[in-house]
Amino acid sequence: MWAIAAAMLQGLLLTLLVELSLAALLKVRGWDLVIIGLINCLTNPIVNYIFNWAWVLFNGQPLFPYLILAVLELAVLLFEALLFKKLLHFRRIGALKLSLILNSASFAAGLLITVFRVII
To answer: How far is 5 from 24, CA to CA, in rounded Å?
Structure first.
């Protein structure tokens, strides 16, 4: 149980590091960065929790958990874009594009870490 909680916390911290760093590079400033962080604190644990349960429910068979993950990631992308549009003052790029950029970067970082863990 503690291992799952630690892994979920690690995933959240990685997501926050990647997305907030990239948002700052895109010139997102002030409270907008805080809002992005808070939104990730809401969405990231939900996705990870459901994805981990999908592995348990489908006995580690990767097809269904990864299909569920794809649907979850798409839902998060759209949900975060909606929240960004409503809550952020940042308007340099659209909310959907910002969500796509940030989520793609954090997903890729998580994927790279997973691949390197398997290799090592």
So the answer is: 28
Give Cα separations from 96 to 1, 23, 51, 60 (angstroms). Answer: 35, 13, 23, 33
Residue 8 CB partners (closer than 8 Å, separation 6+): 45, 48, 49, 52
Give me the mean pLDDT over the 100-114 stretch.
94
Q: Where does 58-94 have alpha helices with state H?
A: 63-87
pLDDT, one tens digit per residue, over 34-74 is: 999 999 999 999 999 999 899 899 987 889 999 999 999 99
Residue 116's pLDDT band, with cuts at 50, 70 and 90, is confident
Contacts 24+ apart (CB under 8 A), 1-8: 4/52, 7/48, 8/45, 8/48, 8/49, 8/52
d(CA 21, CA 8): 20
> What mean pLDDT do residues 96-106 have?
98
* Domain definitions of the chain by residue range: 2-119
Look at the alpha carbons of 51, 17, 20, 115 in this order and tell me if their dihedral is positive or negative: negative
CB atoms < 10 A from the CB of 19, how many? 26
